[in-house]
Task: structure prediction
Amino acid sequence: MSGHLRLTSLRTSQTDYVLSARSRWPPTSIAYCDALFTIIAPEDSSECIKAYGLRCLYSSLTVGRIPSPVGPGLGVIDVGKFHSSIAVGTADGSVTVTNPMRKVLGKPKAKGWQQCIFKHEWVRRPGSSNEGDKNGGRQGMSRITEGYKVEKADSGLKSGKRIKDVGVTTTIYEEETAVTALAWNPNLSCGGWLAVGWGSGLLRVQDVSI
Result:
């Protein structure tokens, strides 16, 4: 709860460890990229995706932006087992995919590319109770949209702009809208398949590599 990521050696856990830079809130979900020897974690305070190299954990690199804070689950960010693509699920129901290889391997100032591959929206059915039915669930309607364009992953404010000029907004989403689980397929022949689950109970499996 200190806001640090701690990398510890199992041989001498009491003395052989290193801390990352402190953030306002500790990340709720982290993933490891074996191809880049990098730890990937979202940062809710700035709504961005951070990469922490194993040999320089004290510094971080912004590799992507997310439209809202991450979902309430513990597994809402994952890195492919046979590639370096990152998938992140957020509270607004969207799933964003980006590949940080170009930035991590030598061009940290280069702008990466990312895409929202699909987005889930849930609304309460008109006239239904907010407390839910006898089974504990609320009645509602879901919609999944896709076809979003690829965009550049902006790593911060544009030149000449200040925080007070941009403004800060906070949006509260329905609990059933958020992404609660997300994972890449661990098999070599299907490594590009992505499974995503939402709070509404829907599960979607899609080949993102196409």
